[in-house]
Amino acid sequence: MTDQRWVYSFEDINDALEMYKGDWKKVTGLLGGKGANLARMCSIGITVPSGFTISTECCNKYLELENEFPEGMWDQALVALKKVEENTGKKIGDKKNPLLVSCRSGAAQSMPGMMDTVLNIGLNDETAKAMVALTNDERFVYDSYRRLVQGFGAIVLGIDDEKFEHPLGNYKKEKGFKFDNELKADNWKEVLELYNKVIMEEKGMKFPQDPMEQIKMSIKAVFSSWNVPRAIQYRERTGIPHTLGTAVNLQTMVFGNMGEEHSGTGVAFTRNPSNGKKEIFGEFLFNAQGEDVVAGIRNALPISALNDKLPKCYEQFIQECAKLENYFKEMQDVEFTIEQGKLYFLQTRNAKRTAVSRFKTMFDMVEEGLIDKKTAIKRISSDDVDMMLHPQFDPNVLKLAQKQGKLFATGVAASPGAAVGKMYFSSKKCVEMAKEGPVIMCRPFTKPDDVDGMFASKGLFTAEGGATSHAAVVARQFGIPCVVGCNVLIDEEKKTVTINGITLNEGDWVSIDGTTGSIYSAKIPTIQVKLEEQKHFMSILQWCDEFCAKEGIRDIKNGPSRGLMVWANADTAEDATRARSFGAQGIGLCRTEHQFLGDRAGILREFILTEDKDKKKEALDKLEVLQTKDFEELFIAMTDLPVVVRLIDPPLHEFLPDLLELTREVYELRGKGEKNEEKELMLKKAEQMHESNPMLGLRGVRLSIVLRQLVAMQTTAITQGAINAKKKGFNPVPEIMIPLVGHPNELKEIQPEVEEVSQNLLKKNNVEIEIKIGTMIEIPRACLVAPQLTKYAKFFSFGTNDLTQMTFGYSRDDAESGFLLKYVEDDILPRNPFKSVDQIGVGRLIKMCVDEGRESQPMMDIGVCGEHGGDPKSIKFFSQAGLTYVSCSAYRVPVARLSACHAILD
Ligand code: ADP
Ligand code: MG
Ligand code: MG
After folding, report:
1. What is the pTM of this model?
2. Which end of the chain has fewer CB atoms within 10 angstroms, the N or the C?
3. Which residue lies with its CA nearest to atom 26 of ligand 1?
4. Of ligand 1's atoms, which has the minimum distance to the CA of residue 251?
């Protein structure tokens, strides 16, 4: 097969495009990002130095042939080179007008680790003389020549760059030069001799004088660089397939280093990469080549400097940037060079930018009519949304801290966002010091006792634990930046923390980045984006909602919904208000037991401990008053939107002190001959209530069945709360959810009572409110009997946490602190099923339940509450399964809104 096409001149892009039927993605795969975009610029009339691309397929073939060019390739390259010679009027190796080229690697995705670019290929002792005659600038020519020898030696021959830098440094010292631009032509000639020696010493060969040999060797080096360890490692880390290969671009050299007046080189963004403003943002250096601008050798000038000195070029540049944006329909990041007043583009690609800039540029481009809303949404990632929600370090101060070596420790990035404060080691101290200023908590690990301190802190880091440790889970739920598992040594006595021989003391300033997992021993100020002011962020998420929502998602007559709604889990009016401000369209889970915490725990304890009926009732009445108030506030905060209140769920002994501790305490007292009545009673009760498997014990609906008084009290509080809200002019939409049902008879037992209590109360108050009663689906059996459940339940909500636990037969805590990590590492499980829903197993149950449930009740709301509701991958699955909504923590709501939309766009 000699007719395979390996080489494409920039102007032949249409051949490749035709081959792939107009699919630019595939063309980019063939020619690499750099090559494809050079050709595309060429095709819209932007001036690009003439050149050609050797395809990624050729790279693969070359490697397959163990470093041989495939048949036909070199001939094709010679033809393409001839074309370049025609285009430029120059000739390779010509003694009058020699063609010089650069050799640039370029895979489909930009990838560090690949071979660097070699500039000035084609120079040798002869062509150098020709260039001197042409340019009349000997200094420029010999500087370029020595750059080629250095670049070729280092990049193509693989000689350590130091071997070139060192003699140059010595030479400059000897001659009393400080900067490269002080060297004259003769100096560079002498350096060139030094470099030639280096190559001879290191490789036992002469620098190849034959330009064709230079080209050949450079191409081979690019292909081979695909498999250098650095590149392989990078691909493994980022999941880029090893089979893509890299393309090679050979391109006519243009020179920005031909004098101070009319030549130079620059890089620019077509819009501002930090804030997204529509203005060219870039830097320019006169009399410079290649990476001089990025390397920061001299201070680059703002792009406007170009306007002052070369206004025509500047104007052309601005116009071409606009042309590029119009063509690529995306913000670009370009490299360009001006050679004696003539502008060339050397590269363009979609620009990287901050999240703020991403939202603004996407919003603006829709307004400008450049792209549609769908395209804009697709280009935003959940990371972009995340970054908007959490504070970030001031980038300038961060850079400085990094330069000064202030990185103290690293760990698992457990909860995103940056935080800065003085460090303390106990929960109590954190609470106390938080009154004086921002604090950061540092603990070996955290327990429920530490929660007060966590709330008081701006952020925390722990020595132990992984991404699902207590610290990590709580921090994520409440949006506290957190790094866990830092392997630091904490001395709580001395109040110090040590790692790598560096010790910090209590009260020292630290800055932690929960997005990257870094801890700095420095005070780095943070910047928080004010979401309310982020018109673009808010609007784009609004578009997401519009794509998802339908003329009434709950109205089956208008056809099935297009996508998911996003609700939030919130236990208090304050939580709910926050969730609503993030765009939640309902509360999918209000855990009533969270209202029993703090000073209220005593009342519930009273209820549990006393055997006296009147006293029991008294305790319940007290709780009822408190809960009624809570619900009223919650319904007011969520007026017009549904609020799903779950009846009490956890085993009651969770409200008593820990059995072991209690036992120890009582026995200690007894040992001293003391007997504390209350503690004795508590122990007796705790012993009675002790279960060997509380997760599978007396909890959920079972509690309601065994302790009837609780159901009536909670239903009354919910209903009365709604009545109060309504009387104040609000529109409460309460729904009551019965948890942990496995058998329809459990619902049959409880649902009528809930119905009766609430209806009676509504009638008594002469108020009409629809209160839907539904059930949580979290036991596999419930999924199997969905049709029977719909007799009593008007909605379903999957508790995917418990459903995952029970389907796998894992206890989450034990699994995550135990074997799960090994399971994932050893590929026994593809991922932690508590993070991203297990679609094949748990998902199958969900689908079955949805399909069979909807068969009997087609208009039923079916949602998901629990952490999976905020996970983009799971959201996609829930969307396809036909759910009505996902409910997640307030901080995940914006991410979920985007993901819900992504799920239906692609
Ligand atoms: P990278 O992928 O690292 O950006 P490039 O291939 O873009 O590598 O090249 C490195 C530098 O050399 C860039 O500044 C680029 O503009 C410059 N360069 C590459 N080819 C040429 C050329 N033909 N003429 C002038 N400068 C070039
Ligand atoms: Mg580079
Ligand atoms: Mg580049």
Report:
1. 0.85
2. N
3. 290
4. 23
